[in-house]
Amino acid sequence: MTLPVSRNDIAAAYARIKDHVRHTPLMHLGPNALGLDCSVTFKLEFLQHAGSFKTRGAFNSLLSMAPNSAGITAASGGNHGASVAFAARKLGIKAKIFVPEISSPIKIATIRLHGADVVVGGARYDDAQKVCNAYAAETGAMIVHPFDAPGTLAGQGTAALEWDADGATPDSVLIACGGGGLIGGMAAWWQDKAQNGEIKVVGVEPEGSRCLYAALESSGPVAVDVQSIAADALGARTVGQLPYMIAKAAVDHVALVSDEAIIAAQDLMWRDFRIASEAGGAAALAALLSGAYKPKKGEHVGVLLCGANVDPARFA
């Protein structure tokens, strides 16, 4: 099956953005990690500029565009907006970001810190996207979509390219899902390995925000209710059509985790590693710790730690 984004697209994206993004490190926990009969490797993507993986897609999108005087615009739960603002400032492009009311104050502050105008309104991400679309239609500003665009997907896929380049490709990899940009891009890079059984790509979603899970059950994107502690990062009502097409071909399954499991993973990351993770950034690890994903004996499990835009007071 031909996917919306190819390995060549992702390699080209990496060549385009590598001087603008960080090559984030791996942390190898080794055998019997976390009290489990498996080895675990973290990819520390929360160390990326602006605090999340989304900076990859933002730079790839902006470097592939030719914005006019109206600049660019985006809707975001917070992290995409911060990354677009960061990339736009570095590239000298005017940016206006629309965020919903559920966005955390620290994420809104981070967007403003990077120089973008911020408009807060609407209950959820989808509401902010509608207002963003109207603004773009009125002004001619170019939209940088957080997940359902080839440029975004190819940029996020560079995280998987880096993982392979570092010579530590895991047997399975756990990736948190919102609208599907991250798992879509990474699964596109690993499509052949996934279909040959060399790697198992597993999505992780909160029980209360399961748009990719619902799409795979329904044979297409469907709207879901969103009620989760991680909704400001993993709160899309509907998975993107392009990420869904990739997931159908290259994602093994989606594991669901409770908010309580996400909070427990946040607490463990702070207690044992001094990693201050936002809720969405802890979801993938929550699947492993809670048993929502059960590795085989001796399996090498990769966990993508995707975001750290959280109020430090959470861990005081």
Secondary structure topology:
Elements: H1 7-17, E1 26-30, E2 39-44, H2 54-63, E3 72-75, H3 79-91, E4 95-99, H4 105-113, E5 117-120, H5 125-139, E6 142-143, H6 150-165, E7 172-176, H7 181-189, H8 191-195, E8 200-206, H9 211-218, H10 231-234, H11 241-250, E9 253-257, H12 259-273, H13 279-290, E10 300-305
Parallel strand pairs: 2-10, 3-4, 3-6, 4-5, 7-8, 7-10, 8-9
Antiparallel strand pairs: 1-2
General description of the model:
The chain is of the alpha/beta class. It folds into two domains: 7-53 and 149-315, Rossmann fold (3-Layer(aba) Sandwich), CATH 3.40.50; 55-143, Rossmann fold, CATH 3.40.50. 43% of the residues lie in helices and 16% in strands. It contains 13 helices and ten strands. It has helices at residues 7-17, 54-63, 79-91, 105-113, 125-139, 150-165, 181-189, 191-195, 211-218, 231-234, 241-250, 259-273, 279-290, and strands at 26-30, 39-44, 72-75, 95-99, 117-120, 142-143, 172-176, 200-206, 253-257, 300-305. The strands form two sheets. The chain has a six-stranded mixed sheet, with helices on both faces. A four-stranded parallel sheet has the order 5-4-3-6, with helices on both faces. Strand 3 (72-75), helix 3 and strand 4 form a beta-alpha-beta unit. It is globular, with a radius of gyration of 18 Å.
What is the overall number of helices?
13
Largest sheet: 6 strands, mixed
Q: What amount of the residues lies in strands?
A: 15-25%
- Taking strands numbered 1, 2, ... along the chain, how are they ordered across the largest sheet? 1-2-10-7-8-9
